[in-house]
Amino acid sequence: MPVSKETFTSDNWTSTQKKLASNYVSGQNILITIEDDKFKKNELVTVDKIIIDKHNKQRVLLQDGRNLIISKYKNFEVGQLKNLEICKGEKIMTRMPSKNIANGDTFTVKKTDSDGNIITEEGVLIGSAEIFAYHAALLYILVFNNDQSSFHFLL
Questions:
Q1: Would you say the pTM of this structure is higher than 0.85?
Q2: Residues pairing with 95 in the sheet
Q3: How many helices, marked H, and strands, marked E, lie in the chain?
Q4: Most confident listed range (29-43, 112-126, 127-141)
């Protein structure tokens, strides 16, 4: 039985695109890829609006009230949330370690259960609550489609 999971897919913006506040729109999703003093690694944030600061510069205001520092463009990816159906035979590569899973481990999906857990061919249970809590991007899903592969951050 397939299970549907929310994923983040990067729009692959260039550094030039990321540095222009006018490129950002309300509702846009940002995945933090490098932790700093304001954001945690793998945190997902959403653009609220563009504001003008006291120095007459455009700033990207997030829905949680923080500002996205676009000069730190190497620290984040701009992208979209999509639902991805995970089925038997799909390849999964972990992004962050968990109890019995190391960063970079790869698995093949054997089946999914009604609770959203993934059981792998390798005998590992990837628990829905354990892995997908806190909106952290913990897994890559590698999907093969006509000899081309694409990566999704599983949230």
A1: no
A2: none
A3: 2, 12
A4: 29-43
Higher pLDDT, 66 or 141: 66
The fraction of the chain above a pLDDT of 90, given in percent, is 36
User: What is the sign, positive or negative, of the torsion defined by CA atoms of 17, 20, 25, 26?
Assistant: positive
- Under CATH, what is the fold of the domain 11-80? SH3 type barrels. (2.30.30)
Question: How far is it, in rounded angstroms, from Cα 78 to Cα 57?
Answer: 21
Amino acid at 32: I
DSSP lists the bridge partners of residue 91 as: 108, 142
Residue spans of the domains in the chain: they are: 11-80, 83-154
By the 10 Å C-beta count (0-12 exposed, 13-18 middle, 19+ buried), 128 is classed as middle
Tell me which CATH code domain 83-154 carries.
Answer: 2.30.30
pLDDT at 100 over 80: no
Do 11-80 and 83-154 come out as alike in CATH topology?
yes
Taken in order 41, 44, 47, 48, the sign of the CA dihedral is negative
